[in-house]
Every structure is written in C-alpha cells, then in structure tokens.
Design a protein that fits this description.
Chain A: Keywords: Calcium, Lipoprotein, Metal-binding, Myristate, Repeat. The complex is a heterodimer of chains A (200) and B (631). Chain A is an alpha+beta fold. Chain A is 54% helix and 12% strand.
Chain lengths: 200, 631
C-alpha cells in the first residue's frame, strides 16, 4: 500500500490517499483474475475515493442492503474480520484478500474465516457470550417486523442449538478443531459454502 | 440502491458466509445469471454526443428506460450504439445519476424541459439529491404559479351554449368579456365611490346658521343623504342578489370573503331601517354606521393591486405573526421596565403597566407623541433603548413581506401582459412567419380540403390525396390516423385556431411552447370552431387534452369531441418536441393508447433478485409505484 497525504492550506490534514501496490502483486496474492480485480477495484474506489474504508462507511454501505433492521453490529464484526492489520481501516488489499478466501478459497479456508469472524477476541475459542453477540447481531438485521413475531430469546435459543451441535466435549467453548469437524459433518453447511462462488 | 452500493452487492453476498455455519436449514439456491457476460461498454449517442458507460452501471436501476430492455428500442444496428434524440445536456445529469446514485438538477436548465427528460427516461424527480432539491422545488412552484395564471386566462374562453346563469357569472368575474359586464363594473364602482363619499361628507360641518350650533351636513340635509344612501344600498343589494343567483356554487360564494364584505356593507342600512324609532338602541345604530365604511373594500373587486395586497398579506401570515409576536414581547418588556422606572416620580403618567403600553408603542414605532414622557433618569435611559430597539424589531420581517409582495405583483403583471390581446396576436404572427417549409402539415393540407368543403368547392378528398403524395410516409400515416379520428368523431378541424394547433403538432419542427389553447381567446370567428380545454379524467395525472370541436355543420352535437389528442406529460404549454417522439411510437402501435411504465423508487435488496442469501424481507417492501407515461 502506498500512502499519499495531502495537506490543505490551514494546516488541516485533508484527504489521505491510499493506493494498492499493483495489479500484478494482487494477482499473485489472491485467486481472482485480472478482470475480476478490475471490477472489484472500480466498485471499491467509487464508494471510497480515498482508497480505504473506515468503519463508519463500512457500516453505512452494509446498512443499505438491510433497510428493515439494524446491521451495524454485524457490520462491525465483519469489519473486524476484514481489518487484518487492526488499524481501523480496510484497504483494498485487505478487502480483496478477505474476498479471495471467502469466494475462492477451499472449504477449510472458508470455515477458518468464519471461525475468525465468530471469535471476537481472536483467542482461538468461541465462547457462548461471543456467539450470543454474533447471533443477536444477525437477528438484529431482521428488524422488528417479522413473521412470526421476533421473540427476545430467539438468539439465545439459536446459540444453545449451535453449541449443542458444535461443542463436542461440552466445555462451554468451541475450538477451531471442533468447529471444523462439526461443520464438515453437516451437509447443509458444506453445500452452502459454495453458494456464492460465482458472485464476482 | 445507490450506485456505489450496487457495486458492493457481491461483497455483501460474500459476507453472508458468516451466517452459513450457524444456519440450521439449507440455503436457497442462488439465482443464476443466464447470460453472464463480461462487463461491456455501451455507447449512448444522445443527439450526436457520445456517452460511454458500463452496462452494469445502467443495470443498477432496472426500472428506468436505460436500465431495462426498453432501451433496445433505441438500438442502432449499424453503428452498434443506442441513439436518443434528446437533449444532451440534461442527459448528462441523467447519466450521472446512474454513475453516482444522485440526481442533480442543473440550474441552467428550464424546469419543464428537465421534467420532460426525466419522465422520458423513467426517472422520478423525487429522488433529486438534497443539494439540488430546494432549487428544483422553487422553480417548480414558480412554474405552477405561472401555469395557474395561464389557467385563469383560459377561463375567459366562452363556451358555446352557456346558460344565462353561467354567462352572467362570467360577466361578473371578468368584466372585460362583454360590454354589458364592463358597464356593470363601472356603474358599481361609481356607486361604491359615491357611497363612501357620502359617508365622509355626512360628517363635515357645513353652513352654521347664525345663533345655532354648527351642524354637520348629514343633519342638515338629512333627507338628501338618506335618499343617496338608499339608492346605493339598493344598487348593492341588487348586485349581491344577482351574484348570488349567478354563482355556480352558492354555498361557496356565500362563504367567500367578497360576499361577506358585500353583506356587511349593506346590512347596517337594513338594520337601521328596522330600528329607527327605538331610542335605546339608537346608540347601537350609530355604531352600525361605522360598518358602512366596509363598502370601501368592495373596491377590491375593481382593483388588482388591492387583491394582490390581500393575497400577499395572507401568504406572509407567518412573517406577520412573527412580527406581531416579537413586538408584543418587546412592548410588554419595555412597558414593565418603564412603569417601575417611573414609579417613583411624582405625577407620573405611567399609572400602570397597561398605561405604559401606549408609551412603548408610540416610542417603538418612533411616533413620539409626547403625551407621556419619562421624567426619571432611569426612565429616560430605558426609553431611549426602547426607541432604538423598536426600529430593529420592525425592520426585520418587513423585507420578507416586501419581497413576497413584489414577486406576486410581478407575476400578475406578467399575466396581465400576456392577456393583452395585441401581444398575443403579434406573437402568433411571428410564430407563423418563423415556420419554413412545413407546408406538409396535416391541417395545412386539411385546410385546403376543408376550406373547399366549407365553401362547397371541389371535393376535398382528391385534394387531400394529391397532397398526401408529397408527404413522407410517417406524416401520411399520422395524418391518416387523425383523419380516421375525425371520421370516428364525426367532427373535423375547421377554424384558424384549430389549424394553428394542428399545424404545430403536425409539423416536424419544434415550436416555441406557446400553448395553442391560449390562442383560443382571441380571433374567434364565432361561427366555426370553438375550443375547449378539458382536464382529462383518465389515468394520467398531469395531462390535459385540448380538444377542438366543430359546431356549425352538426347543430345537434353536444360538446367537445376528441379530434386531437395530445399527451402532455407535465403541463399544458406544450412543446411538440415530445410529440415527435410520441407520434412515431403511436403509429407503430396503430393505436392511440397510452402506454404506462411502472417506475419504482429504487430500494435496497427488496428489488434485487440476487439477494436470496438471506430469507426475503417479510415486511412490506418499500416500493412506491408511480405510473408515468413513457411513450
């Protein structure tokens, strides 16, 4: 990433421009074709002319797809998952790297990514609290007008369900091995992992 | 969906992978893109200016012309581009809408042409961005007001077979329509003036006879004044009753301001008649005479300026209210202060706070009568502050009221000028002269045919056929269509005015957008053709159908038959530029029906077919469906 800073007259730091290194380098790092990268970058640059997405913009973009509910929490988790350098900004490289795993990676890589998403504090374990947070954020995106009516304990029920399925040794946390194992046994999950392969 | 956001949809779908492991049920199958082709550039040729964009950009809004398959109608096979015969400058704004998701209104564009372009491309103007929306709304409002003035002009058109009542009403409302009305107008005006003068002179002391007190003229010549008063009231009563009789909606008339003024003007007299001999109420009777001064308001029917003033005051009600409120606040504050400041001084006139109100008002408006003056130093200080602030408080809302008045007044001036018949005629003459080489117009050929028919010369059919050989295929098809319509409705184009309109529509040039129906006002030959503009009741919300009816050869027909149909998407002043686009399409369909396009306000995933990753939103989708005529 090359960073250009533009300073305006009265000393205020205005636009900071980030530029991705180069198409070829990205080609090597990701599994997208040149054409796909071009399309991705065009869309990215259109919405974020400065070259990076900050969390607010990220949430804003994501919320446009879910008008009925509140997607900010889930967007926040997503942001954390994409922001691999932990600097509060998602550059195009981070963006494309993440997408490459999700869309072009192997099933194991995808599941790894999902695990990383759920593991909020990145300690290698998914606790019930973390899972409840994730689940509530997903349910929040539905909003209040649902059929049947949204109960308050719906996320919690779902979490219990999840832990029952995934937590093999019943120690209250799900490790990456348990997660991978349980997911690979579940046919639905395996199938849905390939659902978006043609998105780009 | 905003354009940039549309580009992020793949990302949003990819991010849905986070839901997969926690889902308990199988996911629905993703929709397949049937003809997934690589993103390609398409060329849009608008009046020669080439715009290029990605196909995906246009696909963002599938409910518009460019985003749907409708644009295939404009595809040019040879040049492999889409050609639109529209304004290239406005198209810039339209295309930018696809690119950025925001619709802007270029200030240099005429509001009507902009609206027409938008409706052509199937974009609803409500999505104009906040940056330009105010300007757009202002311009729109001005245009509406101008159109309302136009409408008022049209009201002057004389309908055939108006009942006596309607004629009378028309005469009352528009004095310049007939001589009788004008006479009536001046007579009533004269009597209003007389009546007011009488009231005034009544109170003037005149001619004191020696050894007696000065008497007013009213007391001296009681009989004369009484007669005068009676005459005026009689005239006013007759006028009121006549207006009441002629009014199309009597209830509404009775509630209108002018009629209330009329009633208040004549009522005191009648009440006085009833109560003259009763000593107790003679005091009240005197008070009633005050109401006679309301007769002066009757002049507002005669004076445009008065009406405008009244209208301005009404439209500035909020500013006036604010003025009043702030003044009241200031008055109370200063009155209180002055009262307490002057409390100490002896023989002070500031006996109470309400008594100080008078001082405050006189001082704030810088009148300064001097009947109440502060004597203490504190009083003088506060008094000076009061007078200084008074100027400020009054000066602030006044410019707003003034500018409102000025705007409305100028609009009325414009309307008056337009109504001036001389200008009308001159302008039409100029329009006629500016047309060159458009002699293939339907009515031009028609006129020859019809004229001869009317004059019972050689048969029109041969002439028409002869003329039709010289016309282009398009024109002749159109003319044939109009002809069929004529035959259907058993009416024909006749009068010069009808010629004018059809001339305008038939020719393939764009003419100035003078509404032809305005021209109907003058030059009525009376015998042949009358024009009637009718607001249509059909599905289109904003179109009007000017019609032309013939009466002389068919004495039994009733009223307007449609002999020409204009579809005007937005307003009555029409440019036939749009007509050009409409007509070929109409010809292709071989029918005069209006095709409607459903345009929905673009909303997030509710309308995108790809978002099957998550269960479809169960709530009502936010889709506003607006029917707009696209062709």
């Amino acid at each position: 990433v090359s960073i250009t800073t533009i300073v305006v007259e009265d000393g205020e730091l205005s636009t900071v421009c980030y530029r991705p290194e180069g198409l070829d380098q990205l080609l090597q790092q990701t599994k997208f074709t040149r054409r796909e990268l071009q399309i991705l970058y065009r869309g990215f640059k259109n919405e974020c002319p400065s070259g990076v997405v900050d969390e607010e913009t990220f949430k804003l973009i994501y919320s446009q797809f879910f008008p009925q509910g509140d997607s900010s929490t889930y967007a926040h988790f997503l942001f954390e998952a994409f922001d691999t350098h932990k600097n509060g900004m998602v550059s195009f490289e981070d963006f494309v790297t993440g997408l490459s795993i999700i869309l072009r990676g192997s099933v194991t890589e995808k599941l790894n990514w999902a695990f990383n998403l759920y593991d909020l504090n990145k300690d290698g374990f998914i606790t019930k609290e973390e899972m409840t947070d994730i689940m509530s954020s997903i349910y929040d995106m539905m909003g209040t007008c649902t059929y049947p009516c949204m109960q308050n304990d719906a996320p919690k029920e779902h979490v219990d369900n999840f832990f029952q399925k995934m937590d093999k040794n019943k120690d209250g946390v799900v490790t990456i091995e348990e997660f991978l194992e349980s997911c690979q046994k579940d046919e639905n999950i395996m199938q849905s992992m390939h659902l978006f392969d043609n998105v780009i | 969906m905003a354009s940039g956001v549309a580009a992020w949809l793949p990302f949003a779908r990819a991010a849905a992978i986070g839901w997969m492991p926690v889902a308990n049920m199988p996911m629905p199958i993703a929709p397949t893109e049937k003809n997934k082709r690589a993103d390609e550039l398409i060329v849009l040729n608008v009046s020669g200016r080439r715009f290029e964009t990605w196909r995906n950009t246009l696909d963002r809004y599938p409910d518009t012309l460019l985003g749907s398959s409708e644009k295939e109608f404009f595809y040019n096979e040879e040049t492999k581009e889409y050609f639109f015969d529209r304004d290239a400058d406005v198209f810039r704004a339209v295309l930018n809408f696809y690119r950025t998701g925001k619709l802007h209104y270029p200030r240099s564009e005429c509001i009507t042409s902009y609206d027409e372009e938008l409706s052509f491309f199937g974009i609803i103007p409500e999505i104009i961005g906040d940056c330009c929306y105010e300007e757009y709304k202002d311009r729109r409002r001005e245009n509406q007001e101008r159109l309302m003035d136009d409408d008022e002009d049209k009201k002057d058109a004389k309908l055939p077979n108006m009942t006596f009542r309607e004629t009378m009403w028309r005469a009352f409302e528009n004095p310049h329509t007939s001589t009788m009305a004008l006479v009536f107008y001046y007579v009533t005006g004269f009597f209003i003036a007389i009546s007011v003068l009488t009231n005034v002179v009544e109170t003037v002391p005149c001619g004191a006879t020696p050894n007696t007190k000065e008497v007013t003229c009213g007391d001296r010549y009681t009989v004369a004044f009484f007669c005068m008063d009676t005459a005026c009231v009689l005239i006013f009563t007759v006028e009121y009753l006549m207006r009441l009789f002629a009014a199309p909606s009597r209830y509404r008339f009775m509630r209108s301001v002018m009629s209330i003024i009329d009633v208040v003007a004549i009522l005191p007299y009648y009440i006085g008649l009833v109560m003259t001999d009763n000593e107790d109420v003679s005091g009240a009777f005197v008070t009633l005479r005050v109401f006679r001064v309301f007769r002066i308001f009757k002049f507002s029917r005669h004076s445009q300026g008065l009406r405008i003033l009244g209208y301005t005051l009404k439209s500035c009600a909020s500013e006036l209210g604010f003025l009043l409120f702030s003044l009241t606040m200031a008055i109370i504050i200063f009155a209180t202060v002055m009262f307490y400041a002057e409390k100490g001084s002896t023989s002070s006139k500031f006996t109470s706070i309400p008594a100080s109100f008078w001082y405050t008002i006189v001082t704030m408006t810088t009148l300064g009568y001097g009947d109440m003056v502060p004597k203490t130093i504190a009083g003088k200080i506060f008094g000076s502050i009061c007078s200084l602030s008074g100027v400020l408080v009054i000066a602030l809302p006044v410019p707003v009221i003034v500018s409102n008045f000025s705007r409305i007044y100028h609009q009325n001036q414009r309307a008056d000028k337009r109504r001036a018949q001389k200008m009308q005629k001159a302008r039409l003459a100029r329009i006629r002269i500016s047309k060159t080489g458009s002699s293939n117009a339907f009515l031009h050929s028609k006129r020859n045919g019809l004229f001869s028919e009317a004059l019972e010369l050689t048969s029109s059919i041969e002439e028409e056929q002869h003329l039709s050989k010289n016309q282009s295929l398009l024109e002749s098809q159109h003319h044939h269509l109009l002809h069929c319509l004529e035959k259907t409705t058993n009416h024909e184009f006749a009068d010069e005015l009808c010629y004018e309109q059809s001339y305008l529509e038939g020719a393939l040039q764009s003419y100035p957008s003078q509404s032809p129906s305005l021209s109907s006002q003058e030059g009525m030959t009376g015998t042949c053709c009358t024009r009637h503009t009718k607001r249509n009741h059909a599905p289109l919300p904003n179109s009007s159908i000017p019609t032309c009816a013939l009466s002389h050869t068919h004495p039994h027909h009733n009223l307007q038959e449609l002999s020409t149909i204009h579809i005007q998407p937005l307003n009555t002043s029409r440019s036939s530029l749009n007509m050009r686009v409409d007509e070929p399409a109409r010809l292709n369909c071989q029918s005069g029906t209006i095709t409607t396009a459903i345009i929905s306000i673009p909303t997030p995933p509710a309308t995108t077919p790809e978002s099957d990753a998550h269960p479809p939103p169960p709530g009502p989708t936010l889709q506003n469906v607006v029917k707009v005529s696209a062709l």
